[in-house]
Structures are given as structure tokens and as C-alpha cells.
Amino acid sequence: MKLLNTKYHTLVKRWGKIPIALTLTAILLLVAVAAVIAAEYIIAPPPAGETEHEVNGAWFMLFNTDDATGTGLFNPFVRVSANKEVVQGYNTNYRPLQFDESASWTDAIKLSEIPYILYEDVLYREFQLDLNQTNANPYISLDEVQIWLGGADAATITGFEPGATITDFGSFPGYTLQQVYNMDADEDNHIKLDASLSAGSGKRDLRLLVPDAFFEPYDEECAYLGTGCEQYMVFYTKFGIAYPNNDGFEEWGVAIYNVAKGFKWHDLNANGIWDAAEPPLSGWLICAQEVDKGTDVGDPICQMTKTDGSYTLPLPNGNYRIYETCLVDWLQSYPTPIAGVCGSGVHTISVKNGQVVENLNFGNYTGATKTGMKFHDMNANGVKDSGDGPIAGVPIEIWQGGVKKAETTTDALGVYTFSGLMPGSYLVCEKPPAPWVQSYPKVGDPGTGACPAGYGPVGWSITLTSGQTDSGNDFGNYKPATKTGMKFEDMNANGVKDAGDNAVAGVPIEIWQGGSMIAETTTNASGVYTFSGLKPGSYLVCEKPPAPWVQSYPKVAIPAQVPARQATARWVGRSP
């Protein structure tokens, strides 16, 4: 897969070179002399060579022979051309030029103009080479590549001086430069190239990939296609030492790609619109897959989104499907996915001749979680007091737009949980089994809404956003209390039910609260009275004895205060 990424990896050097025949005599082996070893890399289709070689961390690759350079496709920055075997030069805006550079095709280039390519999961900057040799002798050697990074003054750099040894960087006295890459850093290397594989000018022959990490540190503006970059790349090259130059020119440049770009954002409300408060998402892989008549062609070109959620994909001419690779537990809101499958929503584009297509955005969200607790409201005050324990096994449902979306029951701790909810507005209702009665929330409490018939009178109206865990919307319940007692004939008026004291039936008994009578009953044949379905709280239970009955129990502290024909008893009830 051809990828673009902002993750840099440790480079592991891989040797795959074809050494020049060197004769080291026994005498040289015995002498303590440091020798610079030469190595040849042949870029050619097997069995003549290899299509790619890694040299000191950079990749030299045979280019697609069908691709052309030319206006609109290729931006040259240094061309060397001279009627001699060895040619050299570097890019600059300074005039006159120092070596064999062609003035019309040699100029400064900013780091932001050098494209990204991610190869084997490592981010590189890509350079391209166009060769020209005679058909009779198409071979030429690339003997040196040295790259630096400098400031604004590097745009007009001049005065190159070779290094002290073949493995040393050259220098530009008077300039402050960051050394980036030297093809000969380990030994005297050269690349054997065959110009006949892509014969004629206008054909690219070689691709050079230099790790982007080698250019670090650099300003954010100098990322590929960044704006305001003031860091310039200096590129020195030499040809013809091992295999001489014999015709035309050698030209280094960068591809002018089409560009697909967009952003990745966290769609908190899952509405498929990038709203003002919604943040970008970094670290997501966005890819472009070339498509020809409905069939995928080649490997996708990909990039990880940056900290601002942006991505930029350089694309050759063609038709593409732009898609995202979804992370675990994420869902897609834009483009609209097929059957809700994350990553199935794509953009399709056709690009050519340096076209830039923008706003190819992707929106994503994660499921939300709603949780709360069910408690036994012992005193029915609508508050979870310290002695109010959990209630397990009570059905809790979540509704949206009049449709039940999910149902659960409270666990042993009284907790209910709904996970994986799409962002949006919901109503959470309980369905307490008999004889439970809901005490919290109450009708009129803030944040509540009416529940369907057969449920608690009100539930919690909530709005969830992507990834949110909403808690605290609890439910309180109590069981109605029962008050019971007995009416007896106090034969000796001692206020004690003695063995011979019998039940009195038909006597009115009333229960009062806050100065209002709540209920009334009469004693049955056994003298028993019962009040059921009472809400926990404080009550006053009174009898209303018919004449000529006189109450002997309970007694009041001051007999003179006892009303005629009526006595009182105070009772505080709690939920069973």
C-alpha cells in the first residue's frame, strides 16, 4: 500500500547491493589503512538488476516507464547538461550557475513543494529523475546525491565545495544548512541506470524516496502543500564517474500531482454536518483507491489525518474512491454509510492536470451511554437518603420519537445502563411492577417528560452526544404502607385489653394528614380497622365512637383536653 502518514518510524538499513569487483591483496589486509569501499547498485528489471535499492535509508526505485514528464506533470528544479563525461550541479536561484546546470531549468524549491510518499509504512519525500543517453550506450551512473535544508538565503545559495573525503558532505561556506541525506555516507556508492528503459526526454527513469524524518525538524508550514514555508531544499547531484554521460541532460524534479484534500471531524450530534463546536479527529487513515471501469487499480494512496483533522492526498490523473478506515467502536455519519457500516460512505472523484478537489470530509461518532440508579425511597420524599437501598429487577426503557429503542432491568446495585446509543434526544422511563409507586422524578421536575401509559408518570428527557456517558438520572420508588389496629370494649375502663374485653364492630376510624382526612373506614366483626395504599409519612388516626361509647384508650396527657366522643393516636408510616 502506498501511504501518506505523519508517523515516523525507525529506519532499518537493508543491504541488497551488487559489489564492484575489488581486489584486496594480502599486503593491504595487513596494513592498518582505512579504505573506502565502493558499491554498485543496479536499477533494472531482473535478472539484470533490481527494481529498487535502499541506500543509507533512502530508496532508489525504477520508475513506471509509461509515465511522462512535461508541463503540468513535472516540476524540474535542477538540470545538468554538458558535452562531457562527468556532469554535476545543484539547484539555486543564484546566477551565474557554478557547474553544468541549465539556467532555464534550475531554481530553488521549498520543502513544502516536495510531495509525500509513504512506503512500507514510512513517510518519505519523493524526487524524480529524467535521464538521456544514446541508444548505443544507454548506461549512466548516478554517483552523488547530497541534500540539505536551509533558510530563506538557501534560495540563492552558491559556492559548493566538495567534502574532504568521498563519504563527507560537501559544504557551502557562509550558509547555515541542515544536513539531510548523503548517498555516499557509508561508502563510495553509485547507481547504475539504463536510460533506454524510458528512452527520450520527457520520461522519468528513477524515483528517489528520502525519509521525511531526515528533514526534521521543520516548520508546520513546510509540510507538503503547506503555505508560508521559508525553508528551502538544496540538492547536489553528480553523474558519469562509473558510467559516463554521453548525451542530452539529466534532470531532477518533483511530480505535480492532483490533490484530494479534506478534514475528519468528531460529529458529536451525528447529524452529518460539521457544526462549529465539533472538534477535528487526528490519526485516522484516509485513502484514495484508483478505479477503472468499476475495478480497483493498484494500491491505495493514504494519509493519516493531522492534529487539525486535515489530510492531503497527491494523486495521478484518474478516477478515485476516497474512503476512511474506521477505528474500533466508531460509526460514520458523513458521507452517509451503506446500511450503517462505518467506512462504506465514500467520495468519488475524477482528477487530471493538477486539479485540486477540496472538502472531501468525513464525520464520525461513537455510541453514547446512559446510566442511572433505582432506589427504595423509604420515606417517599423523592430524595435518596442514606438508608435508601437499591432496587433490583425493575424494567427501565429508553424511548425516542415515540418508539422504544431499548429495555433493560436494574442490577443488584439498582443500576441501569444503556450502551451504544446514537447521539440524540431520548426519554428514559421506568415501568415499576406492583405495588411499587414512583416518587422520583415527580411531575414538573426540571428535565422530565411524560412517559407512556403504564409507566411511571414522568421520565428523564436527555440529549446525548458522541462518546458521552450520562449518569445521575435516578428513579425513586416506594411501596405503599398499611395501617391496621383493633377496637375493643374496655369492660373495666382501665385502658388495657383484658382477657374478657371483646371486639367492637362498626365504629368509624379515620386517618388524617396535615389537617385533612385522608381516608375513613369502620371496624369489622373482629373489631379490626385497616388502611391500605398509604404513602409513607406522618398521619393521625382517629376514632369517632357513636353514643354512648366513651374512649378509654389511648388516653391524653391532660384529660380535660380530650374532645367528647373522640380520641386521637399518632402514627408514622414507612414503606415496607
Mean pLDDT: 88
Major beta sheet, specifics? 7 strands, mixed
Structural class, from helix and strand content?
mainly beta
What is the tally of beta strands?
40
From the N-terminal CA to the C-terminal CA, the straight-line distance is 69 Å
C-alpha Rg (nearest Å): 43 Å
Principal-axis shape: rod-shaped
Please mark out the parts with pLDDT under 50 across 5 or more consecutive residues, or reply none.
1-36, 558-574
Beta-strand proportion: 35-45%
Helix content bin: under 10%
Q: In total, how many domains does the architecture comprise?
A: 4
Continuous helix count: 1
Main traits of this protein?
576 residues, Immunoglobulin-like, 4 domains, seven-stranded antiparallel β-sheet, 1 helix, 40 strands, disordered N terminus
Any chance you could write out the topology, listing elements then pairs?
Layout: E1 2-4, H1 26-30, E2 38-42, E3 52-55, E4 58-62, E5 74-80, E6 87-90, E7 109-110, E8 116-119, E9 122-130, E10 139-150, E11 177-182, E12 188-194, E13 206-211, E14 232-239, E15 250-255, E16 258-266, E17 285-292, E18 295-304, E19 310-315, E20 318-325, E21 330-334, E22 347-351, E23 356-357, E24 362-366, E25 368-376, E26 395-400, E27 403-409, E28 415-421, E29 424-430, E30 437-440, E31 448-450, E32 458-464, E33 469-470, E34 475-478, E35 481-486, E36 508-513, E37 516-522, E38 528-534, E39 537-543, E40 567-573
Parallel strand pairs: 1-18, 2-12, 16-23, 16-24, 25-33, 25-34
Antiparallel strand pairs: 3-4, 4-13, 5-15, 6-14, 7-14, 8-9, 9-13, 9-15, 10-11, 10-12, 10-14, 16-19, 17-18, 17-20, 20-22, 21-24, 25-28, 26-27, 26-29, 29-32, 30-34, 31-32, 35-38, 36-37, 36-39, 39-40
